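Lab notebook, bench 4. The sequencing result for the construct came back, and we need a structural model before the next group meeting so we can plan mutations. Quick request posted to the team channel:

Model the 3D structure of this chain.
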Amino acid sequence: MIKKLRVTVDGRSYDVTVEMAEESTTAAAPVPSPMPAPSVAPATVAAAPAPATPAASAPVAAGANDVPSPLAGRVTAINVEAGQAVKEGDHLLTLEAMKMNTFIMAPRDGTVKAMKAAVGDAVEEGQALVTLE
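Done. Here's the predicted structure in token form:
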């Protein structure tokens, strides 16, 4: 059986075509004669396109009044703006990672002092997303 896989090594992705050997539930018996060479071409490796890089500026670690990102992902929606009053539990923004959305909620009552990310930004875990006063 032939399978196509994507393998990542040291941060670089490769598309690989491999031939999977058939598995047997019993122990293999010794083969009395040599097996013919497979007619399938050997596995080929092609470099995948480089993954998208995050914004040019380095991520800013969250401070005391910042709402940190709980995971690495991409900002898909922002529901607040600077100067807006928020209550604990209000939906601030949405992150997407691995095809799943994570809602970032206000950890306490306050006023949005600054937005530290924009829609489309790639963010790292622990990076400041919003600053509350």
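The CA atoms of residues 41 and 125 lie 43 Å apart.
Will bring this to the meeting.
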